[in-house]
Amino acid sequence: MLRMRHGLEESPFQTWLGQPSYKVLVSLKRNFFTHLEHRNPPPGFEDFRGWLWDLHLSFRRGMRSGEIHEQLVALQQCQGGGSENEAVPRFDDEALGGHVTHSPLIGA
After folding, report:
1. Chain mean position to CA 21
2. Alpha-helical segments (H) within the chain
3. Which of 19-23, 48-52, 71-75, 86-90 has the highest mean pLDDT?
4. Number of folded domains that form the chain
5. Is residue 85 part of a domain?
6. How far apart are CA 37 and CA 32, in angstroms?
7. Residue of 50 and 71 predicted with greater confidence
8. How many whole angstroms separate alpha carbon 56 and alpha carbon 59?
9. Three-state DSSP state, 107
10. What is the pTM of this model?
11. Cα angle 12-63-98, degrees, rounded to a multiple of 5
12. Does residue 81 form part of some domain?
């Protein structure tokens, strides 16, 4: 079931629905979180612009740090794994490396 505001002809996230591939859906959602510059809130949400921007930056930093982490892990594997002291620390996927925490969500 999909619920939308009265008056909307089509869901703003229509492209997410019915994707044939999980990878395509991941790519679309990643783009949504990392390219907020192109989104302008409707006039009724203008007061939230700063909060939305901070939230966007938290997700963007977290997603970018996750990409860097994946590259470091791959590089380490190519170089034979290295010693335990050189191991790349585990990445916290749930909080995107600590970049997405309760502070930006509640506006603290």
Report:
1. 18
2. 22-34, 49-78, 102-106
3. 71-75
4. 1
5. yes
6. 10
7. 71
8. 5
9. coil
10. 0.62
11. 120
12. yes
Read off the tokens for 91.
């990445």
Among candidate residues 105, 91, 19, the one with its CA nearest the CA of residue 62:
91
In a domain, 100, yes or no: yes
Instruction: Please give the span between the terminal C-alpha atoms of the chain, in angstroms, as a whole number.
Output: 34
Name the residue type at position 16. W
Sign of the dihedral through C-alpha 53, 57, 59, 63: positive
Report, as an integer, the average pLDDT of 36-48. 73
Query: What does the block give as tokens for 57?
Result: 């930056």
The amino acid at residue 2 is L
For residues 106 and 62, which has the higher predicted lDDT (pLDDT)? 62
Q: Report the pLDDT value the prediction gives residue 95, as an integer from 0 to 100.
A: 86
Range of the domain at 79: 22-34+49-106
Count of CB atoms within 10 A of residue 26's CB? 11
The encoded tokens of residue 38 equal 């192109």
Answer whether residue 5 is part of any domain: no
Tokens of 19: 């994707």
Q: pLDDT tens digits, residue range 29-40?
A: 777 777 766 567
